[in-house]
Design a protein that fits this description.
Length: about 300
Amino acid sequence: MTRAGFIALIGEPNAGKSTLLNRMVGAKVSIVTHKVQTTRARIRGVAMEGESQLVFVDTPGLFKPRRRLDRAMVAAAWGGAADADVVVLLVEAHRGVTEGVERILEGLGDIAKGRKVALAINKIDRVHSPVLLALTQKMNARFPFVETFMISAEKGHGVDHLRAWLAEQMPEGPWLYPEDQIADLPMRMIASEITREKLTLRLHQELPYQLTVETENWEERKDGSAKIDQVVYVMRDGHKGIILGNRGETIKAVSKAAREELEEFLDRRIHLFLQVKVRPNWLEESERYSEMGLNFKDGN
Ligand SMILES: Nc1nc2c(ncn2[C@@H]2O[C@H](COP(=O)(O)OP(=O)(O)OP(=O)(O)O)[C@@H](O)[C@H]2O)c(=O)[nH]1
Ligand SMILES: [Mg+2]
């Protein structure tokens, strides 16, 4: 008898949701950075555990939204939780019950009505065990989690145990994806995300938030390689200058890093061309949202 279902990973920005998704899938499907608000839309990764197919849904971090993009991201995250069979709330071991975690706990009541909610205390590599015990008790006093796991998504501690438990929770039924599929995200979007990750890692302060990357053209070549054209949208001339860098060195380095990762992911040669365009109002353009996989109206 086969099983299959959806597992939503939710939590504050930077909790390690994307890191966990990638580890579960065994490949880098969702981008990861040390900065908050890296993931912008729901990203599905598929993992197999025995006869169970686990479809992990990585979501944007949950935080107090201020701008349209924030609101669309937070709506996508809660929507992911509401659509799942099991929800896993990730909290950071060393940060404990923050204000942000409190706010998520308030929203969990409704979500728990139709599904199981488990707690995963992540980044246990950063704390000593007494802290974990106290945090487990505190969290479980606030919300009736069906199970608590202590993990390090980065180092892999406790992840097998979590995966095995999740496999048992999946409803009986046919698999939802071919056995060898690891992600449900168009290649052009994966390509845009990789470039956005490299930009985010290189740029400082608020800038990563103010840009978006789109794959405009994807051309298959006879020699087996592909030519990919991407546009980086920014809001101001000054931002364009920062992204280009002195004599174009920043954009060159980003382009090289993104190309190398894409080549590894696709196992073929890639020619990547990046163009930076100033678009003062892109955060208010519905097309930008659909390209990101978000619902523009959710940002109202
Ligand atoms: N020490 C430690 N760091 C971790 C662990 N898991 C994730 N990280 C780091 O935490 C940072 C954030 O990880 P992400 O996976 O991008 O977090 P996220 O929850 O997806 O963040 P958003 O997409 O912004 O909501 C990265 O620098 C990770 O390397 C862990 O188990 N231990
Ligand atoms: Mg993420």
